């Protein structure tokens, strides 16, 4: 099933090349159908998922390059499950948005987009580290083209910046991966790229530091962690709508996913040593991103900087090294994917109508576009973490976890909650409220049925994740516990003190008796 | 201090409390999805109707409440993450029972009134959707069985105030007022969250993993006093934001930008009482920390006096009422701060009656005066709007603490405790008493200037002055009756299972001075505004005073320049710093370094240029070839 999910988009991509490039409608429908099919198949992962185990599920393993013991081995656990679902969920919505956002070279656009989808899903499901690296690189190229060909005016600059930045990081990671495999050879006599076996390596602390640094740099650029973030605003501003949605929605999570899957459990000592530094950079990123977002005149740039702030929260949660922090981080990765994806789609809606992203060109849109304004409102509230919507659960758990790990950092991070409201409310007011200033805006049309079809699922999921987080959190719990046990170098997750307390605690007991 | 529970609390599990919250929520959903289709006539029935149903269930719960016990409705497990386990669970005890009665009762009257008030507004469906949501959030706030659920409602009312204050969004100033309300509240929320975190982990350190009120109450005594004090102060930051206390009160006076019934809802039945409720709910923590209590009492007393002085000179009818709310909330905090929780909650209830009455009365005046809000242009409405006049008079008497009206009982109780409780002091009492005199004065200044004397409006406005329709006046009459008799609901008695019995014995002077000062305030207002009417050409007692003390007058008129101070000290520096971070630090420094490095590399070889032909086919072709080559090599 996992391989099906990975490769349907890829196969469809090549199938598209056989179609007449002028048959835009057919091409779009084919791509949309394929991505929708992928999504429905991936739902099987959710329903069939066993939340009682931390092991990889739906595993498929084949030898791939025998001489190096590289395997094609894929599977999902509680950490990757929802990231796969997020990818398969967002992809059809993005393709749906291309009906109006992509006017030229539709076939090539969708070709690259579907390859990108394969790359993203593959990155999340790879259990073999080399395979992970291959998918990781596969992702880069189509994204480079999506920005470089369908982007705005400075697209070449932005695409190159994106590519070079990420390449620099990933090359170091490749060296580190090869080192790990050879270390396994030294310790156990065999080469392997199997993540689960690499977890068992005894890596000297000194080596851990270098390896962690190599992985961490690659991931930190992707997150992006302050001060490695400057490629992001450029990439977002220049990328076409779909590119921005996927970039913010999924690609940024590659970095945080990489930390959780590789950098932290593989090099626990180094992770602990680096935690203060990374927490400090994260919290600086939270405040810094929010402040810089506050003064942006360009909507996309504002959202880009808000991502720097939001991903700072995610990083904090991961480095809290406790269950609330890490689950919160995972939850926030999903939540940010939904809300920021929706925000970029919303910018796309008005951009297609007015061909400008400048906030000052708008104002007073509510009267003309009540549906747009309502969707924007809910999305904004989700982004600022209003309880009842998805953003709150993640943010709350992260802050709760961080507060225990480092009270000072937690306290400063809480200010990000205030600043987040400041820049988003300001944006909303300047776009939607106030009098209608620009005469060009007087004749704008509200969301079409197709656009509504994009936003309704997004909003439904925001509500579901806010009101009923249990199906999500319960599926994450075992894997997160197992990862934490590796980070804390404990034998098995069941000895984890907090988990024990959890079970012994009576639910809703009334014990108010006082003397 | 010992927890005043005598024995085990009788807790009864029921499953209908959820409907109290669900009906208003249903109203929201109906308005959003079906409202536009069915239009004003249906919405006018559905929205108040849902609140009425909610009121019926609230009433049933209130009646069924076991003596001194509680009802619990556990709906579903909400957030489970490790040791954190939070349920969607609702709880009615004497405190939340009282609150839901007030919220749904007064809320219902405000909904009914709104039908008349918003009769000419084209956006009535959106209005009622927000109003229903507001009630939903507030009900969730008071019914939540744990702090996190309370916080959901807490943020929810913040959101609704944002939406409703900025209801007439095309006016930038009104939209800004909504934003200001939300952001100032968020500052308070940050304090709330930190308090919650500290409480959760501190209790956890003792093996108690919980956010539920009853369990916290049972285990609070394990915490060291300094921790408790810190927790209480952090929660108080949240309470000060929501309930508009110094230094976070600045949003409330601006909040009158919304439709007037919304002001009534915010000021009386919902929103601002949330902070009081929070502390009354967490009384078991505050009782452990005399320091925290003292801070609450002092902030409350100072706010009560501070806001009252501003209200003395305002000329906008709603602004006077807004500052009076800030001041009255100060009294409630004073009550809580001296450990008289029951007295504080008592004042929440009576204040809900008379402040809703006053705001709705003001709305009726504004309605009749063709949207005029400046009291200098009113006057002489007594004969033209008799019902509004009569009910407004009762509201003014009640808030002024006129003997045997509702405000008299609750305010006196607070002041008696301020003097006689172990946490009280002469100074607190004195500040409160002085404030009581000022309250009576500014309320009757408002009353006389609005309803008595000559009418000062433009002739064409004067022509159209009319009494409001019955759908608006009937709620006024009901609220007036409640303001008259509200003091006889023996709320402190009802709350005694939570807070115990305490009644300080104070001397007659302490007991009656506030009332005497209140009567004096009414007399002074009569002297200055009826016997020597101001705003008429030339003279007038108040005009002369304002000229004599023009420095002080300007200071009060400009509300001590606090908004200006915040603007200069916080808002502008923040924007300037952000601007600098972006343009200098981000663009020049970080990006400059990155691009500089890239240029150095590029200067050494222009390999990359070869790749940038700009031709997609070439790109796609080379991409495919590469992929096929690699795949082919390994699959071979």
Structure summary:
The complex is a heterodimer of chains A (515) and B (636). Chain A is mainly α and 515 residues long. Chain A is 74% helix and 3% strand.
How would you sum up this structure, described in words?
The complex is a heterodimer of chains A (515) and B (636). Chain A has 515 residues and is mainly alpha-helical. Chain A has 20 helices and 2 strands. Chain A has helices at 2-18, 24-47, 81-101, 106-125, 129-150, 155-188, 195-198, 205-222, 231-238, 241-266, 268-294, 299-319, 323-354, 365-368, 370-383, 390-405, 407-432, 449-467, 470-487, 497-504, and strands at 57-65, 70-76. In chain A, a hairpin with a 4-residue loop joins strand 1 and strand 2. In chain A, helix 15 packs antiparallel against helix 17. Chain B has 636 residues and is mainly α. Chain B is 72% helix and 4% strand. Chain B has helices at 17-33, 35-38, 40-64, 94-117, 124-143, 147-165, 172-205, 213-219, 225-242, 251-254, 260-269, 273-281, 283-286, 290-311, 317-337, 341-368, 386-399, 406-420, 426-451, 459-464, 470-485, 491-494, 496-499, 508-531, 541-548, 550-557, 562-603, 607-611, 616-635; strands at residues 11-13, 70-81, 84-92. Chain B has a 3-stranded mixed sheet. In chain B, strand 2 (70-81) and strand 3 form a beta hairpin. Chain B starts with 10 loop residues before the first strand and ends with a helix. The chains are: A mainly alpha (515), B mainly alpha (636). At the A-B interface, helix 4, helix 5, helix 6, helix 11 and helix 13 of A face strand 2, strand 3, helix 6, helix 7 and helix 8 of B.
């Amino acid at each position: 099933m996992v391989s099906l999910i990975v490769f349907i988009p890829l196969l469809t991509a090549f199938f598209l090349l056989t179609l007449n490039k002028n048959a835009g409608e057919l091409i779009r429908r084919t791509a949309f159908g394929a991505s929708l099919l992928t999504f429905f198949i991936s739902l099987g992962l959710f329903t069939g998922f066993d939340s009682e185990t931390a092991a990889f599920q739906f595993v498929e393993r084949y030898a791939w390059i025998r001489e190096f013991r590289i395997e094609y081995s894929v599977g999902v656990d509680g950490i990757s499950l929802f990231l796969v679902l997020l990818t398969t969920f967002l992809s059809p919505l993005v393709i749906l948005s291309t009906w109006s956002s992509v006017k030229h070279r539709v076939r090539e656009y969708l070709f690259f987009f579907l390859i990108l989808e394969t790359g993203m899903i593959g990155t999340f499901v790879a259990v073999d580290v080399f395979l992970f690296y291959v998918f990781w690189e596969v992702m880069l190229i189509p994204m480079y083209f999506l920005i470089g060909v369908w982007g705005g005016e400075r697209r070449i600059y932005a695409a190159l910046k994106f590519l070079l930045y990420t390449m620099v990081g990933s090359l170091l990671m490749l060296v580190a991966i090869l080192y790990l495999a050879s270390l396994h050879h030294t310790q156990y006599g065999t080469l392997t790229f199997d993540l689960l076996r690499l977890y068992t390596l005894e890596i000297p602390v000194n080596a851990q530091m270098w390896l962690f640094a190599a992985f961490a740099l690659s991931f930190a650029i992707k997150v992006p962690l302050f001060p490695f973030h400057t490629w992001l605003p450029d990439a977002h501003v220049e990328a076409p709508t779909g590119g921005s949605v996927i970039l913010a929605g999924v690609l940024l999570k590659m970095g945080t996913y990489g930390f959780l899957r590789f950098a932290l459990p593989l090099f626990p000592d180094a992770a602990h040593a680096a935690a203060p530094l990374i927490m400090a950079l994260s919290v600086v990123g939270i405040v810094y991103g929010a402040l810089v977002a506050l003064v942006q005149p360009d909507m996309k740039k504002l959202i880009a900087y808000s991502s720097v702030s939001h991903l700072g929260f995610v990083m904090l949660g991961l480095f809290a090294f406790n269950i609330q922090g890490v689950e919160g981080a995972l939850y926030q990765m999903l939540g940010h994917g939904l809300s920021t994806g929706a925000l970029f789609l919303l910018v796309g809606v008005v951009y297609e109508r007015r061909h400008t992203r400048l906030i000052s060109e708008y104002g007073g849109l509510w009267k003309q576009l009540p549906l747009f304004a309502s969707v924007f409102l809910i999305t904004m509230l989700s982004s600022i973490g209003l309880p009842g919507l998805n953003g709150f659960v993640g943010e709350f758990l992260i802050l709760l976890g961080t507060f225990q790990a480092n009270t000072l950092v937690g306290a400063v991070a809480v200010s990000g909650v205030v600043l987040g409201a400041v820049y988003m409310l300001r944006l909303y007011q300047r776009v939607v409220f106030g009098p209608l200033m620009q005469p060009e805006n007087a004749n704008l049309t509200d969301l079409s049925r197709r656009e509504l079809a994009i936003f309704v699922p997004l909003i439904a999921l925001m509500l579901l994740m806010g009101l009923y987080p249990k199906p999500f959190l319960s599926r994450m719990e075992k894997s997160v516990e197992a990862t934490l046990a590796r980070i804390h170098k404990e034998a098995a997750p069941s000895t984890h003190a907090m988990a024990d307390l959890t079970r012994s605690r009576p639910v809703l007991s009334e014990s108010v008796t006082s003397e | 201090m010992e927890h005043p529970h005598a024995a085990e609390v009788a807790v009864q599990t029921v499953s209908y409390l959820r409907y109290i919250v669900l009906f208003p929520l249903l109203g929201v959903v109906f308005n959003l999805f079906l409202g536009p289709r069915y239009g004003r006539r249906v919405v006018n029935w559905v929205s108040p109707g849902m609140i009425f149903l909610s009121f019926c269930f609230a009433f049933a719960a209130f009646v069924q409440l076991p003596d001194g016990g509680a009802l619990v409705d556990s709906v579903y497990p909400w957030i489970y993450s490790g040791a954190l386990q939070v349920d969607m669970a609702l709880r009615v005890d004497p405190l939340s029972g009282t609150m839901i009665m007030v919220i749904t009762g007064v809320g219902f009257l405000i909904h009914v009134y709104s039908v008349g008030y918003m009769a000419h507004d084209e956006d009535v469906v959106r209005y009622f959707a927000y109003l229903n949501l507001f009630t939903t959030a507030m009900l969730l706030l008071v019914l939540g069985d744990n702090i996190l659920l309370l916080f959901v409602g807490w943020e929810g009312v913040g959101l609704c105030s944002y939406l409703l204050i900025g209801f007439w969004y095309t006016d930038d100033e009104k939209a800004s007022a909504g934003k200001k309300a939300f952001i100032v509240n968020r500052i308070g929320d940050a304090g709330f969250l930190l308090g919650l975190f500290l409480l959760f982990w501190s209790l956890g350190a003792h093996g108690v993993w919980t956010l539920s009120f009853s369990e916290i109450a049972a285990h609070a005594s394990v915490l060291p006093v300094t921790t408790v004090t810190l927790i209480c102060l952090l929660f108080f930051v949240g309470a000060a934001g929501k309930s508009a206390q110094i230094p976070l009160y600045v949003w409330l006076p601006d909040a009158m930008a919304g439709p007037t019934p919304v002001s009534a809802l915010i000021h009386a039945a919902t929103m601002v009482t949330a902070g009081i409720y929070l502390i009354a709910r967490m009384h078991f923590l505050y009782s452990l920390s005399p320091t925290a209590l003292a801070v609450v009492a002092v902030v409350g007393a100072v706010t009560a006096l501070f806001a009252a002085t501003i209200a003395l000179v305002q000329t906008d009818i709603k602004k006077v009422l807004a500052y009076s709310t800030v001041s009255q909330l100060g009294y409630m905090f004073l009550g809580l701060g001296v450990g008289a929780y029951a007295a504080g909650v008592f004042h929440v209830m009576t204040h809900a009656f008379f402040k809703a009455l006053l705001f709705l009365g003001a709305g009726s005046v504004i309605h009749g005066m063709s949207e005029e809000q400046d009291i200098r242009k009113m006057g002489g409405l007594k004969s033209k709007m008799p019902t509004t006049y009569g009910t407004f008079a009762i509201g003014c008497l009640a808030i002024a603490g006129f003997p045997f009206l509702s405000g008299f009982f609750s305010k006196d109780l607070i002041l008696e405790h301020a003097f006689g409780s172990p946490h009280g002091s002469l100074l607190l009492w004195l500040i409160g008493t002085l404030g009581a005199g000022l309250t009576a004065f500014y309320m009757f200044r408002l009353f006389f200037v609005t309803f008595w004397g000559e009418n000062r409006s433009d002739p064409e406005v004067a022509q159209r002055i009319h009494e409001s329709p019955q759908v608006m006046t009937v709620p006024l009459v009901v609220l007036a009756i409640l303001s008259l008799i509200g003091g006889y609901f023996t709320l402190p008695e009802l709350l005694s299972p939570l807070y115990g019995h305490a009644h300080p014995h104070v001397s007659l002077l302490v007991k009656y001075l506030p009332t005497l000062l209140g009567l004096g305030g009414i007399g002074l207002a009569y002297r200055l505004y009826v016997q020597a009417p101001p705003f008429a050409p030339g003279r007038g007692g108040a005009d002369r005073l304002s000229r004599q003390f023009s420095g002080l007058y300007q200071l009060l008129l400009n509300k001590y320049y606090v908004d200006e101070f915040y603007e200069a000290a916080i808002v502008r520096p923040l924007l300037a710093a952000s601007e600098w971070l972006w343009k200098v630090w981000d663009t020049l420094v970080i990006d400059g370094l990155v691009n500089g490095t890239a240029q150095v590399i590029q200067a050494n070889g222009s390999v990359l240029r070869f790749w940038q032909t700009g031709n997609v086919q070439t790109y796609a072709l080379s991409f495919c070839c590469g992929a096929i080559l690699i795949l082919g090599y390994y699959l071979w």
